[in-house]
Amino acid sequence: MTPADHGRPGTSTRCWSYDTVCAIAFVALGVALFLLIPHQVARPLMMFGQMASGLQPERFPQVVAGFLVGFGLWYLWQSRGAQEASGFAALTPGGAARVLIALGALLLYAGLLEPLGFVPASFIIASALSLFLGQRNIALGVAVCLGVPVVIYLLFTRVLHVSLPPSALPGGLL
Length: 174
What we know:
Layout: H1 18-40, E1 46-47, E2 50-51, H2 59-79, H3 93-116, H4 118-132, H5 138-159
């Protein structure tokens, strides 16, 4: 086999594609989450020696981790025949900067949730990211960046009875 044969279909050289690397990362993350979940989920209070729910609190996160492993394995199986060039060499510096700025915005979001509350923090970060990534219709941006967090907040707090950080704004309704 010559160096020119590298990556061509029909050659015996194993080619690592984006899909293969992502699939392996999903499987590893799913296994790690599955093993760590029992140590991270607090036990609920017991009444008369029994739990209020028949389900163990770590069961649902373990099911999600199991699905992550299952879909990761399926993704790995599907990626085994992919013959694509490595895209890392073609990555522009602007693309890497966008990813790093988005990750920084998510870290800032985590820091803003407690002092500002869910809706204001979500509105600020979603608005900033949408403007940064090219959204220019201000009316649509405000409607989506305000409407979606309000709907999510009301759904989680009123329907699902899940606590989200309340707003620090005057009135504190959202």
